[in-house]
Amino acid sequence: MRAFWKLAKAEFKLFTREPLAIFFVLAFPLILLWLNGSQLGNEVDELVPGYVALILATVGLTQLPGVLATYRERGILRRLATTPVPPARVLGAQLVVHLVASTIGVALLLTAAAVLYGLRLPQAIAAAVLVYLAGALALYALGFVLAALAPNARTANAIGFVVYFPMIFLCGAVIPREQLAASMRRIGEVLPLAPVVTGLQDAWSGAGVNLAALAALAALIAVASAVGIRLFRWE
Amino acid sequence: MATVVEVTDLRKRYGGTVAVDGVSLTVQAGEIVGIVGPNGAGKTTTVEMMEGLRRPDAGKVRVLGLDPRGQGAELRQRIGVQLQQAALPDRLKVWEALDLYASFYRRPADWRRLLEEWGLDAKRDAAFADLSGGQRQRLFIALSLVGQPEVVFLDELTTGLDPQARRATWELVKQVRAEGATVVLVTHFMEEAELLCDRVAIVDRGRVVALDTPSALVRGLGAGQRLRFRPLGPFDPDRLRGLPGVGQVERDGDQVVVAGAGPLLATVAAALAEGAVAVADLRSEEANLEDAFLALTGRRQRD
Known about the structure:
The complex is a heterodimer.
Chain A: H1 2-16, H2 19-37, H3 44-73, H4 76-81, H5 87-117, H6 125-149, H7 153-170, H8 182-190, H9 194-205, H10 211-231
Helix pairs in contact in A: 1-5, 2-3, 2-5, 3-5, 3-6, 3-7, 3-9, 6-7, 6-9, 6-10, 9-10
Chain B: E1 3-14, E2 17-28, E3 32-36, H1 43-51, E4 58-63, H2 72-78, E5 79-82, H3 94-102, H4 111-117, H5 133-145, E6 151-155, H6 163-178, E7 182-187, H7 190-196, E8 199-204, E9 207-212, H8 214-219, E10 225-231, E11 246-252, E12 255-260, H9 264-274, E13 279-286, H10 289-297
Parallel strand pairs in B: 3-7, 3-8, 5-6, 6-7
Antiparallel strand pairs in B: 1-2, 1-4, 8-9, 10-12, 10-13, 11-12
């Protein structure tokens, strides 16, 4: 386990040394909050759950696939494969580090929203935490599949962005779904980010535990991790 | 002496290409064994099967008595590997890499000592991306030793190093062996193999074509010595033919090559002086591992 924590610590340090990652995971949600939170008629309690989902999508789809594909392409994973560290632990360390990075982004966002715009705590805190964790695992598993499918790091990054952008706009992460045309809304509803947004919004508003959203995320976690493990190549 | 690496009739093909075609060899404890051969001869594939990175199609591999595929976790605790091509994350610092890799092993070396030995002290806080090729190479060698391995696999050890660093590296490899490790060295530098290795396996087209000490391989050529010079005036080869110890006398462009044995230089020099033949660029050449390699594989090394 010593090796696992050392790996996680090293990976976390590396995350803090990537200015782009820092910007998109930590700063960008705050900018969005500032832009939209200051507008009249916008309810911060409805915006923030979307931004939390946005952070998970940013980490899972634009960070994780690039890191894994780069590590594979450059032989970093191959070098690790000659050491006694089991492959599962290398992936586990990545998972933990990306979860920690997401959570720091979320903590900053919630603090800023509470201090500046009077954000209230979710009505159902346990449900919010549960959806958050399930959403994180689901999006990271999806990112893992993208890394497995992409032949190299450039493609992994490109596919990540192609999946990411439509999803954050259509699923209500950055634009409230009510502002979208009905046809767009329908597309958004079947994308993997939708249950994260809905589940978090319900937890915040007091609508309670959204079982359908949790079931969708559980299914996504199961399928994506099975596919990822099957397809991911160490070199 | 204990057998550390035992490989029997190892085979591996990639698609239609046969990379390793029945390699057998053993390495004894405390030896430095070199695997040399042209590019694409199957050297790296052979070593990667010993490390457990690749699965053989057929044949048997045992390293420290362990099966690299079935008992890989235990084996990887006890071996050190420097890959021909590898990398670390760009922004990882030198000390962080050593500290991290040290945490993977049950009985790690003091990585601060390795940092000094491999001349990386001044680069302690440098990011991997900012290291020169030679510095990266030294870091990878240091990383291969950080677990205090019983066997070290070094693939193209000194590629990318300047001649000085290369010599320093050879000294350190000898020291690694003196401290009790067994070394398997893949190289295409004949000088390196000749200087460092107790035994050398010459691999060509996926097979071991010769396996012996460097001097035995050279002796096996039966080449003896050669003299080479450029006559400054008309020269009759018959003047040398038939002299004691002189074998073939051949022209090679404007030069003359004399093969033979015994006190060849003295004999030839005396004959030339007697005939008042002035010569330039007189050189004595001794056969080396490169010649043995050429004779055995029938082709020149390509870098």
